[in-house]
Amino acid sequence: MINPTWLDTFITLVETGNFTRTAEQRFMTQPGVSQHLKKLEEACQCELVIRLGKGIQLTEQGQRVYHYAKEQQEKEQDFIASLKFDAPFEGKCVVACSGAIAQRIYPALLALQKQHSALNIHVEVAPRRTILSGIANNTLELGIVTNQPESEDIHSEYLGEEALGLILPRSLPDALAAQVPGLSENAQGFISGSGSGSGSGSGSGSVAKVASVSGKAKSKTDDGRTIEAVIKHLGLINHPDAMHYLQRYFNDCGEAELANVNPNKLTHTGYINQLSQILLPVSEGLGYTVLPTSTLDFVSFADKLTVYKAKNEVTEPLYSVQTPHSALPARYQVVKQAITQVLG
Question: I need a labelling partner for 91 at 20 to 30 A (CA). Which of 129, 169, 173, 329 fits?
Fold first, then answer.
């Protein structure tokens, strides 16, 4: 690598055309200027100037070195200027979150990007452990996770709650209905509700089309035995977050029988790791699953699904996560504000 100090001295020498004036501008002695030129010529292995009395004339190689030195100088100036640049509506932002959260926040982020075209927003769908690892290792700047992380390497801020639902096929198979007391009318007790808007963090829109257990059907399941029989007969449509969601749901839903069910011992009737497809086998009567209820806003067959209305609403807290050692660039603050409006 060519010494940048020699290059700076050479630029001044070319632009002044004189060793004395170069020494004055560089606060050097004239022999010092000559020494820099000599070292630069040795590094380039060629003669760069021809001395003409007190002036100079560039060789062809000298002209090339001068243009190279000017380019390096301009690049350095641009780089220094870029370090001071922190526009709120320009630049790349990467946000890592679960698939369910991505579905909720992405429309708002697209609207933000449409409003400010210089923003370049990337949404990375990743599991919680990957997001936290990326923040701790400084390979990610902003993430959204469930449950507050306990680490000094991660700064977290509460965003809101995400409602979890035990999602069943709206019409249960005849064979199952016959086996489960209280469901002889092929699950007609699972009647349409008025939506899930009462839950903090839950979705809206098409969620209003899904059913919830209420009224007469609820009285049949006050002891939890009926819903326990349903899930054991249907089988679980498994997915990457299913065990975590199930354990949380069983612990917090207030159904005594479900609280004693071990999720790891449940029968599985399918597995898929794409969020957009998890509810498809459920809608066809092939099983049940537990997901954030907001996912129902994004499927076209929500009317074929029902959300069981447990005694207690089950939610998970959502947190934004970032490194604790530095503030996010201004553009991330804008993105974070848009996310908070959706999830808060």
Answer: 129
